[in-house]
């Protein structure tokens, strides 16, 4: 998508000139000329998305799978921790922890898991923010919203069973690892990911 922007800009300038010439020939008003420009630009952009197989909607597909799965696993872990499904499972959870969180049915009283979760989530948000060269007002608002959510998740994670907080931390840590890996120029070359204007030779 990023690599298409220069081509879209060039085609938009050419289209603007063609619509201007055509509009003068047919006596179009500025409103009609703008309508034809937007209509044809949408068609051109759609053709480019089809050509390069990179429609923006595809970037959201993972979210529609990931969020319901995250919610379902979180609810399942909560049910197991409070004994809603089977008291035998709850007993296994109460003795199945490790390190300082030996009881997965109780909240983490040390706050290590919740604070780690907040820091990892904040790190992911900052990685995304640092990738953007030109940031729009909407993107700034979205970034600040996710920063607030990351901080709010700390007290929330401190009140739920440790099994849920551990799952949330593990999930976020995997997300952070993916983000760091995809910033590696070597890894991107191995996966044949095309270079973009915002890519850095020293991303870390």
From TrEMBL:
<dbReference type="GO" id="GO:0005743">
    <property type="term" value="C:mitochondrial inner membrane"/>
</dbReference>
<dbReference type="InterPro" id="IPR028055">
    <property type="entry name" value="YidC/Oxa/ALB_C"/>
</dbReference>
<feature type="transmembrane region" description="Helical">
    <location>
        <begin position="111"/>
        <end position="129"/>
    </location>
</feature>
<protein>
    <submittedName>
        <fullName>Mitochondrial inner membrane protein COX18</fullName>
    </submittedName>
</protein>
<keyword id="KW-0472">Membrane</keyword>
<dbReference type="GO" id="GO:0032979">
    <property type="term" value="P:protein insertion into mitochondrial inner membrane from matrix"/>
</dbReference>
<feature type="domain" description="Membrane insertase YidC/Oxa/ALB C-terminal">
    <location>
        <begin position="2"/>
        <end position="181"/>
    </location>
</feature>
<dbReference type="InterPro" id="IPR001708">
    <property type="entry name" value="YidC/ALB3/OXA1/COX18"/>
</dbReference>
<keyword id="KW-1133">Transmembrane helix</keyword>
<feature type="transmembrane region" description="Helical">
    <location>
        <begin position="59"/>
        <end position="77"/>
    </location>
</feature>
<comment type="similarity">
    <text>Belongs to the OXA1/ALB3/YidC family.</text>
</comment>
<dbReference type="GO" id="GO:0033617">
    <property type="term" value="P:mitochondrial respiratory chain complex IV assembly"/>
</dbReference>
<dbReference type="GO" id="GO:0032977">
    <property type="term" value="F:membrane insertase activity"/>
</dbReference>
<dbReference type="Pfam" id="PF02096">
    <property type="entry name" value="60KD_IMP"/>
</dbReference>
<keyword id="KW-0812">Transmembrane</keyword>
């Amino acid at each position: 998508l990023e690599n298409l922007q220069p081509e879209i800009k060039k085609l938009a300038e050419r289209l603007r000139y063609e619509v201007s010439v055509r509009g003068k020939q047919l006596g179009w008003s500025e409103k009609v000329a703008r309508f034809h420009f937007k209509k044809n630009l949408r068609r051109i952009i759609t053709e480019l998305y089809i050509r390069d197989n990179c429609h923006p909607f595809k970037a959201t597909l993972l979210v529609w799978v990931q969020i319901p799965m995250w919610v379902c696993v979180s609810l399942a872990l909560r049910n197991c921790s409070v004994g809603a499904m089977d008291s035998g499972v709850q007993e296994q959870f109460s003795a199945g922890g490790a390190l300082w969180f030996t009881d997965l049915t109780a909240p983490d009283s040390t706050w290590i898991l919740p604070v780690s979760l907040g820091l990892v989530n904040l790190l992911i948000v900052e990685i995304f923010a640092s990738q953007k060269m030109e940031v729009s007002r909407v993107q700034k608002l979205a970034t600040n919203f996710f920063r607030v959510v990351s901080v709010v998740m700390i007290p929330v994670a401190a009140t739920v069973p440790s099994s849920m907080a551990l799952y949330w931390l593990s999930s976020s840590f995997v997300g952070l690892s993916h983000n760091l890996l995809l910033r590696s120029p070597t890894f991107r070359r191995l996966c044949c990911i095309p270079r973009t204007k915002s890519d850095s030779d020293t991303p870390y």
